[in-house]
Amino acid sequence: MKRLIQEIATFVLGTRCYAVIIGERGSDRYDIASQIHFTKASAEEHRRRIEQTRTFVYITTVSFRWRRR
After folding, report:
1. Strands (E), the chain
2. Total H helices, total E strands in the chain
3. 40, 43, 51, 54: which has the highest count of C-beta atoms within 10 A?
């Protein structure tokens, strides 16, 4: 029963996704990183990789709902 309700909610609301927002160091330009993540842990791992670079700086992680058709 719980699985059925979860599937209905996913169909109606969509799948929760995460996107990492990054900025170029020394610039006021902001972009969405090249990947859409389906888990918060995956987005956090990507954030840690971004923080190790000298080119980009981590800004924030945003979540959104996506209804794939």
Report:
1. 15-24, 30-37, 56-66
2. 2, 3
3. 43
Distance CA 28, CA 15 (A): 31
- Of 42, 20, 46, nearest in space to 31 by CA: 20
Q: In degrees rounded to 5, what are phi and psi of residue 66? A: -130, 125
What is the band of 69 on the pLDDT scale with cuts at 50, 70, 90? Answer: low
CA distance 69 to 67: 6
Q: How confident is the model at residue 10 (pLDDT cuts 50, 70, 90)?
A: confident
pLDDT value at position 34? 85
Joined together, the tokens standing for residue 5 give: 């309700």
